[in-house]
Amino acid sequence: MKVIKKGIVLLVxxxxxxxxxxxxxxxxxxxxxxxKKVPKELVKHNDVRVDDYYWLNNREDKEVITxxxxxxxxxxxLTAHTKEFQASLFSEMKGRIKEDDSSVPYKLNGYxxxxxxxxxxxxxxxxxxxxxxxxxxxxxxxxxDIAKDHDYFNLSGIAISPNNKLAAFGVDTVSRREYxxxxxxxxxxxxxxDVIEKTTGSSVWAADDKTLFYxxxxxxxxxxxxxxxxxxxxxxxxxxxxYHEQDETFNTYIYKTKSKKYIVIGSSSTLTxxxxxxxxxxxxxxxxxxxxxxxxxxxxxxxYGDKFFILTNKDQAYNFKLMTCNESATAATNWKExxxxxxxxxxxxxxxxxDYYVLSERENGLNKLKIVRWDTNKGYYxxxxxxxxxxxxxxxxxFNTSILRYGYNSLTTPSSVIDFNMDTQTKEIxxxxxxxxxxxxxxxxxxxxxxxxxxxxxxxxxxxxxxxNTKLDGTSPLxxxxxGSYGYTIDPYFSTVRLSLLDRGFIYVIAHVRGGEYLGRxxxxxxxxxxxxxxxxxxxxxSKYLIDNxxxxxxxxxxxxxxxxxxxxxGILNMAPELYNGVIASVPFVDVVTTMxxxxxPLTTGEYDEWGNPNDKEYYDYMKSYSPYDNVTAQQYPTxxxxxxxxxxxxxxxxxxxxxxxxxxLKTDSNLLFLxxxxxxxxxxxxxxxxxxxxxxxxxxxxxxxxxKIDK
Length: 712
Fold this sequence. Notes:
Number of strands: 39
Radius of gyration: 26 Å
Mean pLDDT: 92
Low-confidence stretches: 1-27
Largest sheet: 8 strands, mixed
Number of helices: 12
């Protein structure tokens, strides 16, 4: 096959039906996109890697855009027969959602704040009511009006001034997570001329109602590295830099304690944290270090009375413990133990109220909420009976209350928002998620937790859900999902869109692989750095368990993951492609070595504690051993759908683009390979609540089509 270097398209046609397995589809003729090869030598530690597709990393190059557009055309042409079904899926998913939905209001400083949606509208309306929930509504932001001239829109970080008269807010219209902060007068509706660009979107008001602290991002790396102070009505050019985080592996941020007494600057990397603070009524004072950073020491702080409470891993408390200190002596040498470390319980969070504190814990993978009185130190756990569920502390900004708001859902139970009276130990379900359409009944679905044995003997938990009529005899299609990085746990949660798979006979499985914190901090430590391969092999061993135990077979097994979960997809595709009939890799991080060697790429240097620094040969060699792009080989791969966004700030579009180009070059099968690039959006995809469903519908149509189950 001859490739013209200045061209992008292979001068041969493929017959679509030839690449389809077990599916009766119409024939379609389309040219396969093939990226030109421009060899570039990448040398490190005397090791030479030749990257033929390095040139794709320039989004300003018209030839790059042409290639991405031709990949989109290829994908759209060869999936054209599913477009009507995608539209049907979208309508089905949308039909389960209450369009005129609203959140349960929460109380803050004398007002009840809430969010609601209107029928047919994509974006939320933020509003508040003074004094009582039944008071007249005051609309703060109608995002549908603000977003109308933008392809992408996200409003974030609403901060209300202490006098309730002003709202600072951040807006992103590109999806690079760079927000412009504006300030609105809630009494007059005027949006002030103050414009603060390239921020995280979040901000904090001092007690004087005119001083605003915010976080700036580096324009190249997008690292949050500077805290500024802005005085209302003054030019942003006069804003004062109050903190600059010089360490490129750290990010910085700012917030106010729930007690409202302190404004806190936080700095953190994957393994280390540090805080500074001032009184909210002294905005022009100098920030004082809470306790200097120590490599490997993680801590977070909360304030109550005349003390700080510190959630920390100090003294090898890998599952964290709670310590305390006086306001006037905050260095780590002054911390005293309050709740000791427990080997089998991960202490995840602390919420403070006037009369109680609430601990968020995780034991054997399950969420637990413990409520304790300050005065008696007597506590109790909220009862949760399901084998697989998700429970979490909700929005509780009010300090002087006995009501704890928490959320609960499971794989088969829609989400509930619950107010629990900590005095009377009674609860009120404020809202249970409505599943419209008249077809959903929770008793029609089954969930369970099963454990696979990994190749090193470790038991790997999986959360499983399916329709009660689905056969567990090896013939049913199964979608296996995982993330497995940064200690981020994917809890077994309810999903209305997932019903479109379950109702068509799919089994859905969340594999709680190492790299998350499902089974505690060690679960995370055993899936990062020089143990990262455990994440991939855990997923593969879970797949083998599901096949061996007749949940499915390799002809009906599918896998999906996004971002770092997309890296997981790339890893399993190279290591065990024969196990899967199809794989979806969303915004996948697949060119690990090259990206981690380029400290100009957004977020790279802050990732060293997660993946390792490849400037160190040991980490370089280990990364290279699993990096999906570096390990594509001449072998058979299943049908693959890869998605990305041109403006993605976290996983640059060229990683999946290069990966697909190399897969096309080397794979020995005739299975379909798709690259679908959203030319308008970034890491999170579409911004509207319904537009995002269209992307899910595309993914689901891909899977259902491979199963030959598209509705006639």
